[in-house]
Specification:
The protein is mostly helical. The protein has one domain. The protein has 7 helices and no strands. Helix 2 packs parallel to helix 5 (84-105).
């Protein structure tokens, strides 16, 4: 898995890429929470759920279906009564944050892969290119020399591209606005 830091950075960058009044710091923090939520499946290890099981690590909670249900639940519970357009935008943001988790994990060099299509298909997948060092599941193992290597790998393969895309999007938005004003 990628570290929680990388999942949150991607979610925050996605939120900042959309210039929307609906995405205050509360929603950005919820987006960051959505991006790490799939890893709550590691609790299953303590109750006997095996890694490769439906509810195992990188299983159902890393799927597209889970991302849709989780995002829909958040919007239905906390944003009921908002205009439909606002609710749709929030759903899309929370969905993308949650589903990005599996996408980042599929770029790592370890684990069993990600069950993107669970519960309909429990096959585990990786992307063809897997440059990101896998982060250990235990927190204590993260704070070591290997942890520094993980953060370096994530900085190169996740943080730098994410920030570059965000800056490019913001520059394009400014250009678009400047052209709209002069037209």
């Amino acid at each position: 898995m990628a570290s929680a830091f990388s999942h949150a950075i991607v979610a925050l960058a996605m939120g900042k890429a959309f210039q929307s009044k609906q995405l205050s710091w509360r929603e950005l923090c919820l987006g960051a929470f959505c991006s790490v939520m799939p890893d709550f499946d590691v609790i299953g290890f303590s109750i006997g759920i095996q890694y490769g099981d439906l509810w195992g690590h990188r299983g159902l909670t890393h799927s597209v279906a889970f991302a849709a249900l989780f995002a829909g639940s958040l919007v239905a519970l906390w944003y009921r009564g908002k205009p439909a357009r606002a609710m749709t935008g929030l759903f899309l943001y929370f969905f993308l944050c949650t589903v990005s988790h599996g996408a980042l994990d599929a770029m790592t060099d370890g684990g069993l892969g990600v069950a993107f299509f669970s519960p309909f298909d429990t096959t585990r997948y990786f992307f063809p290119v897997r440059p990101v060092l896998v982060s250990p599941i235990g927190v204590s193992e993260f704070f070591s020399a290997y942890g520094v290597r993980i953060l370096t790998s994530e900085a190169l393969w996740i943080w730098l591209p994410t920030c570059t895309i965000l800056v490019a999007l913001r520059a394009a938005q400014r250009l678009w606005r400047a052209r709209s004003v002069t037209s």
